[in-house]
Design goal:
Shape: globular
Number of strands: 12
Largest sheet: 7 strands, mixed
Bound molecules: pyridoxal-5'-phosphate
Distance between the termini: 34 Å
Helix content: 25-40%
Strand content: 5-15%
Oligomer: single chain
Structural class: alpha/beta
Number of helices: 15
Length: 399
């Protein structure tokens, strides 16, 4: 019996991709090995994070980096760094920010449940812009002048959620922020691939960038990266690391935390609840090395062949299959199954519900269910699961 069966659970077929609620991405064998090796010995976490910082800096072009417990945690730590800087008294007070700047400007159209990470640190979001295209009321979106107009004495920084279609472009928002001496924190959690984004957002002037470690990088599901300016990474590190040491003895690696920048030794910070273990740090670094070097490209070719097999195995007069490229060919291709809901006698929602309830349970991509489309994302589908996946799809697509 496997560990999940021991707990009374049956493993599922995840055809949704590396989503958190289904356990993130599968870790490659080399990453699992790195995890096991990390667990077998002990090191100083401060020194390990300093070594991680150098690796992350080399891969991203940023001055420094930190391994976090996810991109959302990276957004929390990045916000904490922007709010408190390297002032231990401010670190101590978070999430209460009375008396110092704590407004973070964000485009209204970039708001989501994930910005809870920013609000949790005590920041108050100040919204700018409209998305008139989505509102079906026009053609305009958030514009740079609106950011400039929102900046005032209480502004701490700008939050920017990056996607290839984010508006206005990151460079324009960076220019607004830097003209006012403010920092830009970028959420790019799921914006890998393309691999170039590891460097391009930093190159565009972002002060801090957050990536997920458990998505395309295929690190531990509870890992992430915060990279950017070394003074901000130092603040984030000081607010996350365990501080239960004597000030007389505390000797953090100067490349990660510059003790002289801090007026004193901070106590446990608001990020202490976001700790990462040595295993996550080492495994994430191995996964980052593999991702950044292009080691996953071969898998992508294999995955495409798998999708083609699934598409040709689906035999239903009510289903039309199409393989679609994502991210200009840089992302895993997806299989879209468009349903003729009338002739099938079932909605895509109903098919999705029945697939989840069947044996084995199958979770398909659900982003386009309202249009009657099921999505098969092959990233987390293992070879031995393909047959079961096709069988279950055929059962539910032939009523
Ligand atoms: C996935 C995601 C997150 C959260 O990332 P975790 O690594 O799971 O914490 C945050 N923001 C966006 C836009 C995401 O897609």
């Amino acid at each position: 019996m496997g560990v999940y069966e021991d707990l009374g659970l049956q493993p599922i077929i995840n055809a949704s991709g590396a989503v958190t609620r289904l356990g993130g991405a599968p870790m490659p064998e080399a990453v699992q090995q790195a995890w096991r090796d990390a667990a077998a010995a002990t090191v100083s976490i401060e020194q390990l994070q300093a070594a991680a910082s150098a690796r992350i800096a080399a891969v991203t072009g940023a001055e420094a980096g930190l391994v976090t417990s996810g991109a959302a945690a990276a957004m929390m730590l990045g916000t904490a760094a922007i709010l408190a800087g390297n002032d231990p008294a401010r670190m101590e007070r978070l999430p209460h920010c009375d008396g110092f700047p704590h407004e973070m400007v964000i485009a209204r159209e970039q708001r989501s449940g994930y910005d809870h990470a920013v609000r949790a640190e005590g920041a108050r979001l100040v919204e700018v812009g409209f998305h008139e295209i989505v509102a079906n009321a026009g053609v305009r979106r958030a514009e740079a002048w609106e950011y400039r107009a929102a900046i005032g004495p209480n502004t701490a920084g700008i939050v920017y959620v990056y996607s290839p279609t984010s508006c206005p472009p990151l460079e324009e928002v960076v220019a607004c922020a830097h003209a006012a001496g403010l920092s830009v924190l970028v959420d790019a959690a799921g914006e890998l691939p393309p691999r170039e984004n590891l460097r391009s957002l930093i190159a565009a002037g972002a002060d801090l960038v957050a990536f997920s470690g458990g998505k395309a990088i295929r690190g531990p599901q509870s890992s992430g990266i915060l990279c950017g300016r070394s003074d901000l990474i130092a603040s984030a590190a000081a607010q996350m690391l365990d501080m239960d040491d004597h000030p007389e003895l505390w000797n953090p690696p100067s490349k990660l935390i510059n003790r002289d920048l801090l007026g004193g030794m901070p106590r446990h910070g608001i990020g202490r609840a976001l700790k990462v273990g040595k295993e996550e740090i080492v495994a994430l670094l191995k996964a980052l090395e593999l991702f950044a070097s292009g080691a996953y490209a071969e898998d992508d070719a294999r995955t495409r062949a798998r999708l083609e097999r699934i598409a040709s195995a689906i035999k239903s007069p009510a289903a039309r299959c199409a393989i679609r490229e994502t991210r200009g060919g840089a992302g895993a291709p997806l299989l879209e199954i468009a349903l003729d809901e009338k002739s099938l006698g079932r909605t895509a929602f109903e098919v999705c519900r029945r697939l989840r309830a069947g044996t084995p349970a199958v979770y398909v991509g659900h982003g386009r269910l309202p249009e009657g489309i099921l999505i098969i994302n092959p990233t987390c589908v293992r070879e031995e699961q393909v047959e079961g996946l096709c069988r279950r799809l055929n059962e539910e697509l032939n009523s």
